[in-house]
């Protein structure tokens, strides 16, 4: 059994650049000449992307594509799949393969204690005793549940039935494809950032995924990413 505190995010393929936003936007005024106009004036291009972001002209940010490979605990995917518009997913299936014993345990920097009431609470650091308890309790539960899973498989029980004993701390993997507009909406909800004009309170585990996705996207579309930050991290 493997206990893991980190998530994995890889950019598998992409067709995404700031120029994709520009030619899509300029077709409004330049028609078929919009492609030829891309890249002619860097300052004007930056200004156009900022204008589109600020005034929430969103559709030009959809003419691109990024596919990510994500490996994370199932509890992350439960939240991830709430994002449906502009996203496509394919996840590994416990019906068709034997699931590997890789489980999530919080790292030492994960805040463990929730204080306050729903809608108005904060997370604070846990002490050494709480971290020890969490690690030991999770490992014990994982070992028991995976042993039960293996016992049923060995007895000939179908994988789709046996998997019911496995917890949401089990790691799964998926491919997720999106465009920049749908990714910005995801980031606005699943990251906590002082530049955001709308408060967000993501669970730390999905925020870990979001941070890695954002870093990869920022390298592909730096002007768009900067405009997103400059305009309150609100998806157009």
UniProtKB/TrEMBL annotation:
Pathway the protein acts in: Pyrimidine metabolism; dTTP biosynthesis
Enzyme Commission number, as recorded: 2.1.1.148
Keyword Transferase belongs to the record: yes
Pfam families tied to this protein: Thy1 (PF02511)
Gene Ontology MF annotations: flavin adenine dinucleotide binding; NADPH binding; thymidylate synthase (FAD) activity; thymidylate synthase activity
UniProt-annotated binding residues for FAD: 59, 82-84, 91, 179-181, 185
Residues at which dUMP binds: 79-82, 91-95, 163, 190
Domain of life: Bacteria
Cofactor annotation comment: Binds 4 FAD per tetramer. Each FAD binding site is formed by three monomers.
Cofactors (names): FAD
Annotated catalysed reactions: dUMP + (6R)-5,10-methylene-5,6,7,8-tetrahydrofolate + NADPH + H(+) = dTMP + (6S)-5,6,7,8-tetrahydrofolate + NADP(+)
Keyword flag Amino-acid biosynthesis: no
Subunit and partners: Homotetramer.
Homology family: Belongs to the thymidylate synthase ThyX family.
Protein name: Flavin-dependent thymidylate synthase
Organism: Sphaerisporangium rubeum
